[in-house]
Specification:
single chain, 561 residues, alpha/beta, 12-stranded mixed beta sheet, 4-stranded mixed beta sheet, globular
């Protein structure tokens, strides 16, 4: 049997005009700004006018540690939202926007899959409403104004060796990780070592996603530290008078984007910080807007519960006053066999021994959600045709031992109809109120930065502690002296392992996490701890997905999968 590709399914969809989607959830016409027939931005007033009304319930979707065999977290999120909609409940899905870098690099698309997709799929995966371009422009404006200030006399006495602000581009480009710029004499700036980040790793992206509106965003942008002066004092975007112009570039990007699923369920897609090098969640504004207009909001956090979910809770929920009512942990038989040592070429063959060896990875993510954070959870087993009853039984046994249900999800093949059992369990957990009193963070605001990192390492990763390299120790001391010790920590770590070593699959033990660098994102409001060999500018793989992406003379796109 030949299955249709994701793009073939998406291109055959019959979409409603976006005004009808807005009407379904009660958003007034005056609060909608159209971007064609099937995309719109929602004016902040739509959320503000409901400030006194009760919020819906928030359902978070996370996953096990990702593998090349795939987990399907976004597909599950979309399918779960469609399933809740089929049950007659008012639901909105809240997701991140895809980054062009991975779309043309590894993923080839990030709008769900099969019959659980958000549409228009090609637009969402490519330029969408231009949010990322605006974020890149604001980021690079700040870089240009910083260098320009130094060129015209350096009145702020900036130590040019202490510049921390990089330019960004929304593309995987390893050639730009380390560059030397400003060559060619004084008229072309001053020569220095520099580098680029990918746009989704920019602090501007993080600040936008954690802001509660344009005014709040402008204040956050002003606090961004770009360098230090010769006395060691921070130099901010506000010192350069750059934050006003940056906010002007972002005046539309701060507004959430409204689209729909294949089953015409409303979806807000806004912001896109990476979860391995940033906080990995869609915008606070989109989430809060969705909670005002729906009984249930399905959102996701990037990668596994050790990364995206930890940051969703310890950073986003802490700052925005949010609390998940239930958590869905996505797993696949194939991925668990990979964690158990099975080669990728063999994951479609029954192998209960490899599965058993990989199950501890799922167990740790269940523990993180239910024991560390005190939230009710359900495991969604994203079903593949090759899964066998014996393998599925092993997953059920593990989940039973934690008092958590394992529910088959077939949303890729069947859309919302394949996720109704999952939806019923997620709703049951959300309505139970089980997480209201037990909910807690992994660390306290008052913990020193080093203690926060150690608690994350031990509680969430299952390691024995963190070791700080000499440079990180100096940075730690300086950040605390500058008064940033009370900020939450954003761990930049490989997504492929619970440790900071991507080769340690399953549930490694006895490891320590190496912190090589600490820096403050004062605008976004967290301290970033870079561990292992993590980079803020990815590279393309040997065979980029871009090689298969094409467009014909009529503008029909192919190759997005």
């Amino acid at each position: 049997m030949k299955f249709k590709t994701d793009i073939e399914i998406a291109q055959s969809a019959k979409m409603l005009h976006i005004s009808e989607i807005a009407e379904k959830i009660g958003i007034k016409p005056e609060h909608i700004e159209f971007y064609g027939n099937y995309k719109a931005k929602i004016n902040p007033a739509a959320c503000d006018e409901k400030s006194g009304e009760k919020d819906g319930r928030l359902i978070l979707v996370t996953a096990i540690s990702p593998t090349p065999a795939g987990e399907g977290k976004t597909t599950t999120s979309v399918g779960l939202g469609d399933a809740i909609n089929r049950l007659g409940k008012k639901v909105i899905i809240a997701l991140r926007e895809p980054s062009l870098g991975p779309v043309f690099g590894v993923k080839g698309g990030a709008a769900g899959g099969g019959y659980a997709q958000v549409v228009p799929m090609e637009d969402i995966n490519l330029h969408f409403t231009g949010d990322f371009h605006a974020i890149g422009a604001a980021n690079n404006l700040l870089a240009a104004m910083l260098d320009n200030h130094i060129h015209f006399g350096n009145a702020l006495d900036i130590d040019t060796r202490s510049i921390t602000w990089k330019r960004c581009i929304d593309m995987n480009d390893r050639q730009l990780r380390h560059v030397v710029d400003g060559l060619g004499g004084r008229a072309n700036g001053f020569a220095r070592e520099d580098g680029f980040d990918i746009t989704v790793a920019s602090e501007v992206m993080a600040a936008l996603c954690l802001s509660d509106g344009l005014g709040d965003l402008k204040e956050k942008l002003g606090r961004i530290i770009v360098a230090y002066n010769t006395k060691g004092e921070p130099v901010t975007a506000a010192c350069l008078n750059a934050h006003g112009a940056m906010a002007a570039l972002l005046k539309d990007a701060v507004k959430p984007n409204l689209v729909q699923t294949l089953e015409r369920t409303p979806a807000l897609i806004h912001g896109g910080p990476f979860a391995n090098i940033a906080h990995g969640c869609n915008s606070v504004r989109a989430t809060k807007t969705a909670l005002k207009y729906a009984d249930y909001v399905v959102t996701e956090a990037g990668f596994g519960a050790d990364l995206g979910a930890e940051k969703f809770i310890d950073i986003k929920c802490r700052k925005a006053g949010l609390k998940p009512a239930a958590v869905v942990i996505v797993a696949t038989v194939r991925a668990l066999k990979t964690h158990g040592g099975a080669p990728k070429a063999e994951v479609s063959s029954e192998n209960t021994e490899a599965l058993k060896k990989g199950l501890p990875n799922l167990a740790k993510h269940i523990e993180n959600i239910t024991q560390v954070f005190g939230l009710p959870a359900v495991v969604a087993v994203n079903k593949f045709p090759s899964d066998t009853p014996a393998e599925l039984s092993e997953i059920e046994k593990l989940c039973d031992s934690f008092g958590v249900r394992a529910v088959l999800s077939e949303v890729w093949e069947k859309g919302g109809a394949g996720g109704e059992a999952l939806a019923l369990e997620a709703i049951r957990l959300a309505e139970s109120g089980a997480g209201n009193s037990a909910f807690k963070f992994a660390y306290e605001d008052g913990d020193p930065i080093s203690e926060k990192i150690n608690k994350i390492t031990c509680k969430i990763y299952g390691g024995e502690g963190a070791d700080f390299e000499p440079a990180a120790k100096k940075q730690l001391k300086k950040l605390e002296e500058l008064g940033f010790g009370g900020l939450p920590v954003c761990m930049a770590k490989t997504q492929y392992s619970l440790s900071d070593n991507p080769k340690l699959l399953g549930r490694p033990e006895g490891f320590r996490v190496k912190v090589r660098e600490l820096k403050v994102s004062a605008g976004a409001g967290f301290v970033v701890a870079l561990t292992g060999d993590i980079m803020t500018m990815p590279g393309l793989p040997r065979v980029p997905a871009a090689e298969k992406i094409d467009v014909d003379a009529e503008g029909n796109i192919s190759g997005l999968f």
